[in-house]
Amino acid sequence: MSQTKDGGYMDWLKSGVLMVLVFALPLVTWSEVRPPIQVATNVPPTQEVTPKQLQSTLEQQLREQFPMNNVDFSVDILFPKQPILVPKGRVGIEIPPDTMNGRTGRRSIRGAIHVDSQYEQMVNLVADISAHTKVVVPVRFIKAHEVVKPEDINMMDVALPALQHEYLDDVDMAIGKKTMRLLSPNLPIQKPYLTSPPVIHKGDRVVLEVRQGALLVQAVGIAKDSGEPGKTIAVENQQSGREVLGKVVNSGLVEVLF
């Protein structure tokens, strides 16, 4: 009886092993004969456009657009930090003219990349633009309508808010000029803040001059206004008593206007 049971158990075990072999071997065989994955080999060759190239192009464009005499100027590309992949060919980077007077600080700027003169892609830059230069500043409060003296001003290095500005960068541009407003110490003097002082004062005797082709006529007059060169003032002709308008030429000379 025991032998019959053992024999039946062995038959069951053999049948189980046979079933495993029958169903598993095809799977193993199938997995071994699967074709290999094909790797694409027709990817076109590429090249990199680096942040350094973008920086150089932006610097060149700004230098050509804005005069930068005696200006310490720099551009730092904050984005993109990684190179941009483009097809092989002659690369051109186009950045349009700046429309914000060359404002410094962090700026978002849009440009375009071309390959062999064909548009390839748009690129959005984030750049930090900085500029420093020496400008003329007062060393004291200077009231409006005062004439600036050499001891009133000095030179100071400042950060420029924009590459296009009206700060004075030469003391000779300020000395002898009349202020149009109160000037505060250590704040840059701008061109509109100054004007030439009057060379003719109200009540001065002046020469009235009339030019018409080769004809020159002169008369003596009394200035009714004060004025600097180029300003139009009223002058009374002493001989006729008539009041005429004339342009100040220099000290004591007024050209009559028609």
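Above is the first protein from milestone M3; the second protein from the same milestone is given next.
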Amino acid sequence: MGERLEREKQRVELLRYISGCRRTEQKTSGLMIIPNPVVKLDYDPGRDVLFVAWPDFSEYTMSEAEYVLGVVIETVRTYDIKYLVTDTRNRMVDIPDSRYKAIILQFAKDLAGTRLRKLARIVTESTAREKPISEVRQETNLMIPMRNFGTVEEAMSWLTSN
């Protein structure tokens, strides 16, 4: 029950941040929730930012995890999204590093085929998993700037800066 409450608090934090920005920026047309039964996708078309709240991958099989990443890629392509925020604070990845690396390698290759400009990851110490991510960035020569943040506010500040 505690995890569920924490997830809801984080979602409320994200929605409050987005709605606060909506009041200060006239060009923002509002939040669009893209329906999906597995992963939460919130799109802000005014800023061209897709917010993805990763599910707890320990509850899914490898094929389901790959499906989730495919949904994100398809959404980025369909809406021609330029900025991506992934909230990984609530996810547990109970996958061996070699398998995890293979999955994110494919995800990175797929992202490279989109017009995405920046990727911001909201992480905690336990969700960062920097070694496989760093290896994938080197192997793929991923040109999309990517940074880790502790809060939505920090991530949005970086994404919307020049």
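Note on the second protein: The first helix runs from residue 2 to 24.
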